[in-house]
Amino acid sequence: MNIANPIYSAALENYNQKIASAATEDMVLNMGPQHPSTHGVLRLELITDGEIVKEVIPHIGYLHRCFEKHAESLTYQQTIPFTDRLDYLASMNNSHAFVMGVERMLGIDKDIPKRVEYIRVLVCELNRIGSHLIAIGTYGIDIGAFTPFLWCFRDREHIMGMLEWASGSRMLYNYIWVGGLFYDLPVGFEERCREFVDYFKPKMKELNELLTDNQVFINRTANIGILPLDVAINYGCSGPMLRGSGLKWDLRRIDNYSVYPELEFDVPTGKGEMGTAGDCWDRYKVRVDEIEQSLKMIEQCLDRLQKELKRTPDFDPRSKMPRKTIPKAQDYYVRCEGAKGELGFYFMCDGKSEIPTRVKARAPSFNNLSVLPEIAKGVMIADLIAIVGSIDFVLGEVDR
Amino acid sequence: MNFEDIKLLLVEKFGGVIIGEETGGLQPALVIEPNYIAEVCLELRNNPKTYFDFLSSVTGVDYGVELSRFGVIYHLASIPYQTQLTLKISKENNRDLNELPIFPSITSVYRTADWHEREAYDLAGIFFEGHPDLRRILLPDDWEGFPLRKDYKTAEYYKGIKID
């Protein structure tokens, strides 16, 4: 079954030709897929002239497992564990987006109890902090700072422990279900969470002193990898990547989904404090600021969960779970703010079965990474590491 | 601008470019004549009244074995107006692997489409005319077949290695 039509292989031949001719003139260098600074199994093919990167060709797909094909043979409820494995550093956010889409299609999104929604936002924001801590820690290590990495993982461990307590798993939770939750929060979770917030706030100050305002770190990241706003929008960048370029665009505020309209928080943006707006330092800083905002949201959630939405013995987080998850025949695209940016799921349902005919995951990292060849033209190889780290992608989500 | 206004605007500019609409679900969608999709996207992006400057996603769809129809679905978003729009194009095709369904590429309008169209080509077997670099993206270059097609049979061997 060979495909003979030459127009389908023309692009591949062009590419092979380009690499072959570059190998005689310049140097072709492979970065990854095993290199630790590529944050997973990403392979970057660099065409370099000495130390200058002339072109970057990313090769992805090493972690591909065709989530979309799996989703076509599983019911909505069964697909949730698979969504956890997209962005495995922020699994809660993924399942939240997926579940929200299914609930809206079923028309039960307004009936979800307030306590359930607040718990969802609470765990999502905890997970977002965990994800950003990894982004910050590994970014430090990319650039040569080892200590912040250990500090970030130490603090993230508390979050992992709490989420494990709630869901039974450290990273892949399967906690948020269509119509409710796997289980109510364990007794004492709110108090433990508050303890964590009180412990963590001064730690963020320490981290800022160690890394954010570190002159060596600033020299390595400021004015490097500048992503202009128009390029960012045209390439479909979202999340901290887009906000780092100076646009106040946060779907939690724009779409006002879940209970986010009831919470008070700011949307941090990159202002070019240390260099130009949209450079690596700005993207890093947006993540640091977002951790603070997430902490603020967590405190507000805890206030509500401990006062007016207190746990009652007869509260059942599964009470609104539909017996049969069969949405009307329709297409629906749901988007929400994941830890890395706009996370979208597109569903096509035929209205007859519990299994969707097509699911497409719009992964934020996939789009954020696609801008790399554009902003990495003409930089030094060492700076490329800084740029790759500042994008903060997760290969589980890029490759799906 | 709401859905009806956008429809009027496109009809005024291009005439019979809208060949249908789907308003049954939560999100209405416009069905566009496939050959005009790039022009329509350019107009929607540049017109100050619509300003759909953000392409959320491009989905390649196989509508099933009986229908023999392939489609592409575009999700546009406007940052200044905070609106969303869905565009659909589709075409009949006989599923011959030497005659893939061909649609125009919108890479010249949105760079987001670059990788998304490569993904649609890779997984659903949809060819985009005018794409600068339409190679497979997630699967290896020598992979046979297109996994997201409904008639796809799971490969048993890859380069002589048995797949479990």
Q: Which key phrases capture this entry?
A:
heterodimer, A: 400 residues, Cytochrome-c3 Hydrogenase, chain B, 3-stranded antiparallel sheet, 50% helix, B: 164 residues, alpha/beta, Beta Polymerase, domain 2, 5-stranded mixed sheet, 3 helices, 9 strands, elongated
Question: Could you characterize the architecture of this molecule?
Answer:
The complex is a heterodimer of chains A (400) and B (164). Chain A has 400 residues and is mainly α. In chain A, the strands form three sheets. In chain A, strands 1-2-3 form a three-stranded antiparallel beta sheet. In chain A, strands 6-7-8 form a three-stranded antiparallel beta sheet. Chain A has a two-stranded antiparallel ribbon with strand order 4-5. Chain A is globular, with a radius of gyration of 22 Å. Helices cover 50% and strands 11% of the residues of chain A. Chain A has a single domain, classed as Cytochrome-c3 Hydrogenase, chain B, CATH 1.10.645.10. Chain B is α/β, with parallel strands linked by helices. Chain B has one domain: NADH:ubiquinone oxidoreductase Nqo5 subunit (Beta Polymerase, domain 2, 2-Layer Sandwich). Helix content of chain B is 21%, strand content 29%. Chain B has three helices and nine strands. In chain B, the strands form three sheets. Chain B has a five-stranded mixed beta sheet with strand order 1-2-5-4-3. The longest helix of chain B has 13 residues, at 112-124. Chain B is elongated. Chain B starts with a helix and ends with a strand. The mean pLDDT of chain B is 87. Chains A and B meet through helix 1, helix 9, strand 6, strand 7 and strand 8 of A and strand 3, strand 4 and helix 3 of B.
